[in-house]
Amino acid sequence: MNMINSLANNSDKRTKKKANPFSDTSNLKIRELEVTVTNKCNLTCRGCGFDVPNQIAAVSGEGIDQHIAALYQLKGLGLSIGKIVLVGGEAALAKSLPEYITQIRQIGISDEIELVTNGLYPQGVSKEVLLQLDSLVISDYICTDSFETHWRQYLEASGSYSQIWCTEYQAAS
Predict the structure, then answer these.
(1) Does residue 164 sit within a domain?
(2) Residues 133, 86: contact at Cβ < 8 Å?
(3) Who contacts 145 (Cβ-Cβ below 8 Å, separation ≥6)?
(4) In the chain, which residues have pLDDT < 50?
(5) What is residue 154's predicted lDDT score, i.e. its pLDDT?
(6) Are residues 155 and 127 in the same domain?
(7) 103 lies in a domain?
(8) What pLDDT is recorded for position 62?
(9) Global pTM exceeds 0.90
(10) pLDDT given at position 107
C-alpha cells in the first residue's frame, strides 16, 4: 500500500516555504517561528511528519522556561517575530498552554500567536486560550491517497468543495 500524506510537512507535494527566515532584513524580523510545547500526541498517524522514532522526553516546565528565556534574548538583540506558531505533538495537551501564551504576549516580541491542533482534545483549547490567539489551525493529516480521493469526492458531492474553492478564490482576488 502506498502511504503518501500529501498534506504533511515532509511531503514533496507540499509547497515549500522560502529558506530566508527574515521577512525584512533591515530590521531583522523573523517571518515565523515554530515552538514545540509538547512532544505528546493523542494520535499515532502513519505519515505524520512528527512520527519520529526515539523522541526526546516530553517538554518539561524547564523546557518552557528555556523557550521564554530565548525569546527574551532574541528581543534583547533587536529581533522581532511575525508569527509564533505553537505546535506539538498535540499542543492542546500542554497543561500550561494558557500561561505560556500569556508569557509570550508579555514579552512583546511577536505580532501574532498561532496554535496548531488536531482538534481532538478540545478541553486543552479553552475559552481563555482562544481569546489569546490570533489564529487557530486544525491539522488534518490524511494518510492515504485513497482516503484523500474519497474525501474530495464527498466534498464535491455535498457541494462543499465548490463553496470552499469559491470562497478561497474570491478572497485571493
Answers:
(1) yes
(2) no
(3) 2, 4, 6
(4) 1-8, 161, 163-173
(5) 67
(6) no
(7) yes
(8) 60
(9) no
(10) 97
Domain span at 173: 144-173
DSSP 148-165: HHHHHHHHHHHTHHHHHH
The domain that contains 51 carries what CATH number?
Answer: 3.20.20.70
How many domains does the chain divide into?
2
What sign does the dihedral 45-50-56-61 (CA atoms) show? negative
For residues 100 and 37, the answer to whether their CB atoms sit within 8 Å is yes
The answer to whether the beta carbons of residues 97 and 124 sit under 8 Å apart is yes
Q: Are residues 158 and 80 in the same domain?
A: no
* Contact partners, residue 56, CB within 8 Å, separation at least 6: 39
- Report the helix count and the strand count for the chain, using DSSP H and E: 5, 5
- Is residue 7 one of the residues assigned to a domain? no
Q: 61-76 and 97-107 helices cross at what angle (nearest 10)?
A: 10
Contact yes or no for 75/104 (Cβ under 8 A): no
Give the per-residue pLDDT at 46.
65
